[in-house]
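All the exercises in this workshop are built on plain-text protein records. There is nothing in a record beyond a sequence line and a structure line. A learned vocabulary of local backbone shapes supplies the integers on the structure line. The question running through the whole workshop is how a given chain folds. Here is such a record, shown just as it appears in the course material:

***
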Amino acid sequence: MRPYELSLTAAAREIRARRLSPVELVDSVLERAREVASLGAYVTLTADRARRSALAAERDVAHGRLRGPLHGVPMGLKDLIDVAGTATTASSRVRAGHRAPADSTVAARLTAAGAVLAGKTHTHEFAYGLTTPQTRNARDRGRVAGGSSGGSAVAVAAGAATFALGTDTGGSIRVPAALNGVVGLKPTYGLVPRHGVTSLSWSLDHVGPITRTVEDATTVLAALVGHDPRDPASRPAPAPDRRPATDPDDLSGLRVGVPTTYYFDHVDPEVADAVRRAVDRLALRGARLVDVEIPMARYVQAVQWGLMVPEATAYHERTLRTAAGLYEDDVRVLLEAGELMSAGDHLRAQRARTLMRREWARMLRQVDVVVAPTVPLTAVPAGQTSVSWPDGTVESVSDAYVRLSAPANITGVPALTVPAGTDRAGLPIGLQVLGRPFDEATVVRVGLAHERGSA
């Protein structure tokens, strides 16, 4: 196995044992990034910076100054995340010539943990889309990568980053992770600070890891959490769970909610079957399956758009007036549409979200997690704009991909996607695990059990 193929956990173990140097790992990942450059995962590679950081990490390791599991490990950062002295382009001509004056909180924390920046990854322009058109799917170049963190997901799936960060406003970590067959974790709203991260919708935005394994995701998350007063939504990290470790394959007593509404409606049969098989395997590990109705499901799309659209337009108000021609047409139209929404529309969406959060909290008192498909269909061909369902319903590709992920953004609950096999075309299917606010531990526990049972 070549170094770029190692998971974060495996790479950290090899570095700690002095069987692999950070320089070897970083060089392997950079070379791999060049080999798969046609996938379009990166806006830019920071190769010189990465090699300097790898050399410094190698010296630290040689002198017994290992900072932890991220020390010397190469990462990709979605190009909404500020790194001092580098461009934050948001994959947009609007940001031409931009240079970040300081590190974002998450970049600073990862650097302090010893992680090495391999480069900045592509996003759908300003994260306002679900396909990332600049980037090709790692499994099939003729298919969409998913978005908006498509570059981050493809970089990890292709071996061009050992881990990456994305942002998630309506599914933008989980959608591309699912479509490329990797792990994506959207933490609880407020758990990971967003200072220095370009916003799409401040009340829905999250930052989180994209990795190859669930254990990798928890390792990265541990380096990111903690209060930052510069983000008004930031919350302290919960106290670590001090209970004795249990058998990770034993889910005895865990109540797993299986939706009877919404999450299996208008879902490709291959996706639904793969997820139901995964749920059955959880039951074999002792989980108790409980049918649940998803509350207020018919309001999800209206609330998501009612919050996101006016907040995005407010963020772009100045440049929309002075440089509208620099935006791609699809994003410009959405931003202009936001100017037509009234304050009343936004307030109604906020009120509906309050009710939805309350009803989800009630549902999550009945179960410990909810499991469901991450996306209703696998990666569609690039350029496909709509999906036709057997009952005659026609849905845009973006609406289809966001439909099953948006509830976790509206309610703020943590959500994890893990690979759940492939369809007949060999395209990845994602299983989504949703839990109570700040109970990432239980979400991860279920994800680990699924991952180990599928290996």
About this structure: Residues 3-224 form a domain with the Amidase signature (AS) enzymes fold (CATH 3.90.1300.10). The chain has a mean pLDDT of 96. The first strand starts at residue 42 and ends at 45. DSSP finds 15 helices and 13 strands in the chain.
